[in-house]
Amino acid sequence: MNVLRIEADLLDSNVFVATENDVCVIVDAGASLEKIKQVVGEKKVVGVLLTHAHYDHCYYAQDYAKEFSCKIYCSKNAREYLENSVYNYSEGHFKVEGFSEFIFLDCEGKLSFDGIKVSYTQLGGHSLADMIFKIENDVFVGDLLIGRDIGRLDLYGGSKEGMKSSLDYLIKLDFETIHSGHGEDNSKDSQIKVMKLWQKFLNR
After folding, report:
1. Angle between helices 160-172 and 188-202 (to 10 degrees)
2. Residue 164 above 90 pLDDT?
3. Which of 201, 147, 141 is nearest to 169 (CA)?
4. How far apart are CA 146 and CA 174, in angstroms?
5. In this structure, are residues 118 and 125 in contact, taking their beta carbons and an 8 Å threshold?
6. Secondary structure class of 78 (helix, strand, coil)
7. What end-to-end distance do the CA atoms of the chain give, in Å?
8. pTM for this one?
9. Where are the beta strands (DSSP E) in the chain?
10. How confident is the model over 29-56, as pLDDT tens digits?
11. Residue 97 in this model has a pLDDT that exceeds 90
12. Any idea what DSSP says for residue 43?
């Protein structure tokens, strides 16, 4: 599988295009449709996965779904963020009014798209709708981890306890590469010390 990272237009968030043969899924949706179309090219887009529902990660999701005739997959807790510009921090610029393109996911499970197999798990700490997606040895964590930092805990639905649980889960999870909502990709080996240091800090 090949994963391309696109630095998005909104708050320098990341969008990822994960491709197997000529089929791909898009993770998060902060980059304009035109930018994504340039990256996707002739590949078949089979789904849009949202790691959470702050506006810089979901703003263009419906544009992608309409252009590529696919569905948007996210936590069932994402709906209240998507329909409320206060909770998604867009300052009144973004809210979803029709949800026909959305498929809301329960706490954990698996998806299969034309040869791309995805497992997902509901976590928390940065928001109530934090969901990680694992494809082969790659894990997409949204804003739970950002480089050597963790996502903000002071936004709506964020919590110290939720972040502690998420770090516990990620430390035990078997993967090789971690793709964050902002910044560069990292290996699990390089992030283990970071996650354990944050665990200690949050347990104080």
Report:
1. 150
2. yes
3. 141
4. 19
5. no
6. helix
7. 40
8. 0.97
9. 2-7, 14-20, 23-27, 44-49, 72-75, 102-105, 108-113, 116-122, 131-135, 138-142, 145-146, 149-150, 177-180, 186-187
10. 999 999 999 999 999 999 999 999 999 9
11. yes
12. P
